[in-house]
Design brief:
Elements: E1 13-19, E2 35-39, H1 43-54, H2 59-73, E3 93-99, E4 104-111, H3 117-127, E5 132-134, H4 135-144, H5 155-166, E6 177-178, E7 189-190, E8 205-210, E9 216-222, E10 243-246, E11 250-256, H6 258-261, H7 266-275, H8 280-292, E12 300-306, E13 311-315, E14 323-329, E15 337-342
Parallel strand pairs: 4-5
Antiparallel strand pairs: 1-2, 1-9, 2-14, 3-4, 3-9, 6-7, 8-9, 10-11, 11-12, 12-13, 14-15
């Protein structure tokens, strides 16, 4: 489930999508509700979300708990504490959760010293009229909501940071600067002549849940792109980019190069395709194809599910990333199941 499967070591977001309807669809249509679908093969996240639904929890509860499980497990090193140190060696977190009934969104970005990012995002919905809180102010809000300050650094993240420094800070996310960012560490200054070089950045993990009440909920959690510039925020906490939920149509969630994918609001676009009757798989493919026109070498994938419980996924084919793995839980499956699609 790591972006590293697409080539260079990148951050990844867990995205979780949860859908439910009053009447399950027939088995012949390969659709049934409730449904839990999450990016990458994170089985424990899928199992946790599914158990929440089975015990009577809400769709938002399932999304929050599923993403929280990945934060605890440090899924693939790119969710939760102890991974993806930025240029200063610090791990920071981004997360978002969305209620498809009310269209409310809670999100945090550049969250520091607080481990449960998706939990803090949930509190943004419950206790504020805002949508997105960032940086040190997000951390202060978290403390007011009862979350403890904790060190997000581990020996693993310190080792990653030390190795990066010893390799002349390669790779990094600077361009058009002096000294040459491809050969040395900064501090950098801008140079007069500007050139463009396309590079892969981060990805994310996401989840969508559709429950039996007809509610769609989605959420994301990530520690972002490894060696990112401090203050960088990707697509994970941005509604319509990292994920999107609408109980009248369905839900979608993305993972991949957040700096590119967020420019196209892929999750929102996929939901709108499904609203018009497009099959979830085709909706996912159309979104990927749209981004390909502008960034053919981008690393990314998306999961889609409509309110009947039909689902699909798509990814952009690049060297080292030709298949995309994701998890699905539904009444048609005996347990959460890993599924795979070929990239286009």
């Amino acid at each position: 489930m790591a972006a590293g499967r697409g080539g260079g070591r990148q951050g990844v977001t867990v995205s979780l999508l949860l859908l439910a309807a009053l009447t399950p669809a027939s088995a012949a249509s390969a659709a049934a509700l409730p449904l839990v679908i999450n990016t990458w093969a994170f089985r424990t996240a899928a199992e946790t979300a599914w158990k929440v639904l089975e015990s009577g929890g809400s769709e938002l509860d399932a999304v929050e708990r599923g993403c929280s499980q990945c934060e605890i497990d440090q899924c693939d090193g790119s969710v939760g504490y102890g991974g993806s140190p930025d240029e200063s060696g610090e791990t920071t977190l981004d997360a978002m959760i969305m209620d498809g009934n009310t269209m409310e969104v809670g999100a945090v970005a550049d969250l520091r010293r607080v481990k449960n990012a998706i939990g803090v995002a949930r509190k943004v919905i419950e206790y504020t009229k805002h949508t997105l809180l960032v940086g040190e102010s997000a951390s202060l809000f978290a403390v007011r909501m009862g979350f403890p300050y904790e060190d997000l650094t581990t020996q693993k993240s310190l080792s990653l940071y030390s190795e990066w420094l010893n390799q002349s800070c390669q790779p990094n996310y600077w361009k058009n600067v002096v000294p040459d960012s491809s050969k040395s560490c900064g501090p950098y200054k801008r140079r007069e002549e500007v050139t463009y070089k396309e590079e892969h950045t981060s990805s994310q993990r996401s989840m969508v849940v559709i429950g039996e009440s007809g509610t769609v909920a989605s959420g994301t959690s990530t520690n972002g792109a490894i060696h990112k510039l401090p203050g960088r925020v990707g697509d994970s906490p941005i509604a319509g980019a990292g994920s999107y939920a609408d109980s009248t149509a369905g839900g979608a969630a993305a993972t991949g190069d957040g700096d590119i994918m967020m420019r196209f609001l892929p999750s929102y676009q996929a939901v709108e395709y499904m609203r018009m009757g497009t099959d979830p798989t085709v909706a996912c493919q159309k979104v990927i194809s749209r981004i390909q026109k502008y960034a053919p070498k981008f690393f990314g994938a998306i999961i889609c599910a409509n309110t009947t419980g039909s689902y699909g996924a798509a990814c952009n084919k690049i060297p080292g990333f030709t298949k995309f793995h994701f998890m699905v839980s539904s009444p048609l499956l005996s347990r959460p199941t890993e599924q795979v699609v070929d990239c286009i």
